[in-house]
Write a structure and sequence with these properties.
By secondary structure, this protein is α/β, with parallel strands linked by helices. The protein has 19 helices and 9 strands. The protein has a 5-stranded mixed β-sheet, sandwiched between helices. The protein has a two-stranded antiparallel sheet with strand order 1-4. A two-stranded antiparallel ribbon has the order 2-3. Helix 12 runs antiparallel to helix 13.
């Protein structure tokens, strides 16, 4: 306590000394006031200390004689310090290999400045919006090139992340695709962003990768699944997918033991797409009796009852469920806790909603690389919330241990 009190007293004395020449707000806070000068001097002194560390000796120290490198005057540079642009004179060395850490060569911003650009970019802000925000916050006009440079370094991070090794076993994997608009060869066209979301053995969600193709197709999904295998996945208990033709066969060709489960949420969403608003509540209530049935037989009876009531008005709904029935019925073989892990967490749909909030202001992405960058950054932000295992996971794992006993790790 005594040490802290002494430190506070020393700081108060220093502030009192600085305020001795106070002559109104401008004398201290103005463009050429004491505070601006103080920031300039602190930065220059910090760079001098960095130079001392780089050379291995301080200014005027005899150790510098014949050391092979020495100071070589000072340069000129305009940097952004808080809300101000300040002219500083950074030190130089004769060999030209001094790399300052506080404000790197070729940049006029602190290290954290790039992080702020990336944070805004990750939240879906356009380059123009970022420029306006930085101009408002720092009174500095940032070029498109600088924003692109700040975000370009992310691509190396993406490549490393995309090629990282994966766990040997994932009890559940969700596979889905989001369609966005992108400029290609001077034209705006749709591209498909493929996502693979895994649930680890301890119940945590993990995004496994991002892939981009011109269209969604089972052939491309096969290449995605093969890549996941090459990155270390040996087994998947359950793969939840949409109703894309050929999708189950693509999975089973790589992981023949995997149970392919058609995503119930996709089925519900597709079923209600063209339903009149006044019918939707009652129809959804009737449809719920199908996917919440205790057994396959009860589900078939519920679907028959649903068809008798609604086929005349909406014939495609029950037909769609019957067409995909072989990939719906595995759901009824799962114990309740596994069903909850697959359905009530609604993991991939929740992820998609969060992503759509980020990209909703985007008319069209300029390049596929920009699609990859913003999806990666947005997903990194979303993943920060994945701190807890999904609900009922311990109970679900006990059920997995029974149902997949011969495939559970010892």
């Amino acid at each position: 306590m005594a040490k802290q009190a002494a430190e506070e007293k020393r700081r108060d004395e220093l502030i009192d000394e600085l305020l001795k020449g106070y002559d109104g707000p401008d004398s201290f806070w103005g463009e050429s006031g004491l505070f601006a000068d103080l920031k300039k001097r602190i930065v220059e002194r910090t760079l001098d200390v960095e130079m001392d560390d780089h050379l291995g000796y301080s200014k005027h120290d005899p150790k510098g004689n014949n050391s092979g490198n020495s100071r070589n005057g000072r340069g000129k540079k305009t940097v952004v310090l808080g809300d101000d642009q300040v002219d500083i004179t950074p030190p130089r060395d004769r060999n030209g290999d001094f790399e300052p850490q506080l404000i790197p060569k070729g940049k006029k911003y602190f290290k954290g400045f790039d992080d702020r650009i990336i944070a805004m970019y990750a939240r879906g802000m356009s380059v123009r919006d970022i420029q306006a925000a930085l101009l408002e916050m720092y009174q500095v006009d940032v070029s498109e090139g600088l924003i692109s440079q700040a975000t370009e370094g992310i691509m190396d991070e993406v490549k490393a992340w995309q090629n990282r090794p994966l766990d040997a076993i994932y009890p559940i994997i969700f596979l889905d695709c989001i369609v966005v608009k992108c400029r290609q060869d001077g034209k705006v066209s749709n591209v498909s962003v493929y996502l693979a979301l895994g649930v680890t053995m301890d119940g945590h969600k993990e995004l496994l990768g991002i892939w981009i193709a011109k269209t969604e197709g089972a052939k491309f999904w096969l290449s995605v699944i093969t890549e996941l295998q090459n990155r270390g996945i040996k087994d998947i208990f359950i793969a939840c997918v949409d109703g894309l033709k050929g999708f189950p066969e693509a999975i089973e060709s790589v992981f023949p033991q995997t149970q392919v489960q058609l995503c119930i949420v996709h089925m519900i969403r597709n079923s209600t797409r063209f339903v009149n608003w006044k019918d939707r509540k009652e129809l959804c209530k009737d449809l719920k009796t199908v996917y919440t049935a205790a057994t396959e037989q009860q589900a078939e009876m519920a679907l028959d009852a649903f068809g008798q009531k609604w086929d005349e008005k909406y014939p495609m709904i029950s037909k769609s469920w019957r067409t995909h029935w072989q990939n719906v019925i595995p759901f009824f073989d799962y114990p309740e806790d596994i069903r909850k892990a697959i359905y009530t967490t609604n993991a991939i749909e929740s992820l998609n909603r969060s992503l759509r909030k980020v990209i909703k202001t985007k008319g069209a992405f300029p390049t596929e690389a920009s699609v990859t960058k913003i999806f990666y950054l947005a997903l990194a932000n979303i993943a920060k919330k994945w701190t807890m295992p999904i609900r009922c996971w311990k109970s679900a794992m006990n059920q997995f241990a029974i149902k997949f006993a011969d495939r559970m790790p010892m």
